[in-house]
Amino acid sequence: MTVAVAAPARDRSAASVGLACCALLALAAALRAPLAAMVFGLMAFGVLHNVLELRYVAGRFAGVLRGPLLAWSAAVVTGIAVCRLLTLRTPEILLGYAVLAVGVVYAVPRRWLPPALGGLAAAAAVSLRWPAYHFVVLAHLHNVVPLFFLWEWSRRLPGRARTVFRAVQLGWVLVVPALLLSGLLDGLLVSGGAAVTAFAGSPAALSAPVVPPGTEIGLRFLAVFAFLQAMHYVVWLGFLPWQAPEAVAAFEARVPWLRGWRPWAFGLGAAAVLGVLFTADYLQGRAFYQAFASYHAYLEFPVLLALLFAAGGVRRARAVVGA
User: Fold this and answer.
1) Of residues 206, 232, 209, the one with CA closest to residue 50
2) E strand or H helix at 111, and its extent?
């Protein structure tokens, strides 16, 4: 089991205030230039946030993400990465649900396994029937995953500070997207994509992964994604490295050859290499990035299931993997 570390008194209010301020800045960017925020945000921060997110998850939840669970999950995710490179959508969907099934088997109490696996089978059937919607939903869900890790982190805060912190998280994860989708902020919303399209491609091609097919409010979905993506980067690049040093220490003890500055150097170096591809052909660069990003996007699922079923499933999972 992971152990919550009490936050220093000086950081208790800074955590909530800092994230609230970042949310306001991210909202401004998403309203005035959502396409630019999405494209250039991915180019600038995408690769590095992958590396730091994997570092946090592998360090904070080392007792869960290890042994056979890690081996099986990594093998299936490698298959997903190959599918993304080859644009094999149906196999990717099936392998995505396979990752979830691995997590369910290791984390969910035995009495809940049949309905849980049955639910996965039903969801997989829906995804296979409407694959375009599957990938749009997956893209947006990935951006809200930090809510679960922030919720878990907030256990170290005292009662009032924890309540305020969690309210801030629900605000940017749920309230702001709801406002954007409702149309209440349409008067402030502009595409702002002329310079981006000249560099990266048509607005339709750029926004296709995050906008449901046939919708008449595509710009709102684009703004939601740009906003949540920016906050996603804030959490993984700034907040958790600052507020959870014990996770970094646990990762470095587990992977000593990636201590200190090395994960940052690796992430920045990989970003520079991928930046060449982005500059030469943005859509092709995005395809390579998505293959690389498969690991951080899917390996978090077993951990999330362990968090959700911590009362019983984590103990069983740890017994299986020998934690």
Assistant:
1) 232
2) none
Domain boundaries, the chain: 26-318
SS3 14: helix
Q: Is 178 exposed, middle or buried (0-12, 13-18, 19+ CB in 10 A)?
A: exposed
pLDDT exceeds 90 at position 323: no
Residue pLDDT, tens place only, 153-206: 999 898 899 999 999 999 999 999 999 999 999 999 998 776 777 777 788 888
pLDDT at 270 over 70: yes
Percent of the chain beyond pLDDT 90? 67
Task: Report yes or no on whether pTM surpasses 0.85.
Answer: yes
Contact present, 140 and 210 (Cβ < 8 Å) = yes
CA–CA gap between residue 9 and residue 279 (Å, rounded): 45
Task: List Cβ neighbours of 83 (8 Å cut-off, separation of 6 or more).
Answer: 89, 91, 92, 95
φ/ψ bin of 183: left (φ > 0), alpha (ψ from -120 to 50), beta (otherwise): left
CA dist., res. 135 & res. 224, Å (int):
16
Q: How many CB atoms lie within 10 A of CB 66?
A: 17
3-state DSSP helix/strand/coil % of the chain, to nearest 5: 85, 0, 15
Q: Is the pLDDT of residue 313 over 90?
A: no
Q: Among 198, 277, 213, 182, which Cα is nearest to 35's? A: 198
